[in-house]
Amino acid sequence: MSLLDTIRQWDEGAAAVGRKDWATALKVFSDIVDKNSKIYFNIGILYLITKDLDAAEKAFDNSIRKDEHLAVAFFQRGITFYKQQKFEESLSDFKKAFTELRGNQLIDYKLLGLRFKLYGCEVLHNVALAHAQLGQWEKAEENLHAALNLKTEAKHSLIDRALESILKHKLFDIVEAHAGEVFRPNKQHVAELEKKDYLGKATVVASIIPKDDFSGFAPLQPQVQEVPSRTKAPETLRALEGEPHRVRYEFIPETTDELPVQQGNIVFVLQKGADNWAKVFFNGKTGLVPYNFLEPVELTLSSRQEQQDVKQTDNIPAPPSGEAPVRPARGKEMNIAHRQNGGAHFKSQDEKSKEPMMCVVKVHATYTVAVSLKPGISYTAVLEAISEKLNQPRGTISLSYKKNGTERAKLDESEMENAWKEERNGHLTLWCELTENIEMAPKDESPQVVAIYSYEASEPEDLQFNSGDVITVISKVNEEWFEGKCKGKVGIFPAAFVKDYKNKG
């Protein structure tokens, strides 16, 4: 089979996947004679969708045999082994996939034709799950802590939930790629499959009729002398209103009234302020962009066609020459203009200067959390915020910080002011120790209750007892749950299942 036939069948199979016609796509990919690692990978994905796990395993084996460094193939074969309950083989493949990341946080396979990003934190998430299935809870927790350091997006909050499950020795869901994501052939190669007219259209070389340009088979017609016309000026394109400008450098906003733009974008400047900020329209949104990040440009039909040609060929634009300009200072003029034009949500520089800057407080406990607080607030307010974040009673939390960057000092109301002096660049690090806060009654006054109903434990921390058992109450968890001791075991139980909490008997 020729390369053209392979590309043609590959594109046909990818189109069937887009229609979710799994059977047709699987047949087309299987009929390709010279299969490469990507086509074997596609076959494995289709077998995973149809739940033929043995066939999927063989397909991924062939994909890895063709390309021993294809990390996503190891990742998918690990998922296949996991669904077959081959947890040791699954663990080995997930580790191999992480190794093939070669220290990178992610691999984006878009340039290779697969709309999928393999994140290192998600691979470690699955490594931890495989360890948990093998009963290796400590190794599972260790890998989840490593995954936390590699988090890049908000969707990776699932790693925090997985860590909470591991601490309770519970399993969690595996991370999988979206169903139907397959490698697709290069668009340029597919475009070459279309037939081309290499001969072109015939032209008239000589004729008895002046300016004859007919090249068909119909009889020649008399030619009419055309009146010369003026050259038509190129039609200028405008989107809504404003002057078109090209973005020279990528701009990342820091406030809600600023607009994110990428290098090469075409924006329309609606208003330019004296403080070198411009109000622009782009992608259906209006916001502020530094004017020194822009350059005027006139969009014509020809320039638009050139831009479309560049986009179709997926060429990467050359990097800008020189260094990016400095972000200009914000003034009042542009903000006042925004309010006059209906942009009341924009704030002036004076108003923003009155807003207190927030400090990110990183708290090292069983796992690391972060809270955003106003610098200089009291110890009680800090303790309240951390208690809410950790979902722990305030009485069980003991905080400390590194005094003068060396030794650890316990935090209280008097030390909180010194702790705020350790803030660096809007960040402060604290350490948290969780202690038990059980208010024990005196031995001769320990309250006892009698079980009205039998209670069967559903969680490891529950206290199981039968109707009529006498339970010694240790503490009151909340209005609905007590902590107590019965028959040598300690746990929590519902208050509605007992009576006589105040008195013995």
Features:
single chain; 505 residues; alpha+beta; Serine Threonine Protein Phosphatase 5, Tetratricopeptide repeat; SH3 type barrels; Ubiquitin-like (UB roll); five-stranded antiparallel sheet; five-stranded mixed sheet; 17 strands; flat
Describe it.
With 505 residues, the chain is α+β, with helices and mostly antiparallel strands. Among the domains are: 3-167, Alpha Horseshoe (Serine Threonine Protein Phosphatase 5, Tetratricopeptide repeat); 243-296, Roll (SH3 type barrels), CATH 2.30.30; 379-434, Phosphatidylinositol 3-kinase Catalytic Subunit, Chain A, domain 1 (Ubiquitin-like (UB roll), Roll); 448-500, SH3 Domains (SH3 type barrels). The chain has helices at residues 3-18, 22-31, 37-49, 53-66, 71-83, 87-100, 120-133, 137-148, 158-167, 187-191, 301-312, 332-340, 349-354, 379-390, 413-420; strands at residues 106-108, 117-119, 243-247, 266-272, 277-282, 285-290, 294-296, 359-364, 368-373, 397-403, 407-410, 427-434, 448-451, 470-476, 481-486, 489-494, 498-499. A hairpin with a 3-residue loop joins β8 and β9 (368-373). α3 runs antiparallel to α4 (53-66), α5 (71-83) packs antiparallel against α6 (87-100) and α8 (137-148) packs antiparallel against α9. The radius of gyration is 34 Å and the shape is flat. Mean pLDDT is 79; it is low at 232-239, 332-349 and 437-444. Belongs to the NCF2/NOXA1 family. This is Neutrophil cytosolic factor 2. Residues 304-328 are annotated as: Disordered. Residues 240-299, 444-503 form the SH3 domain.
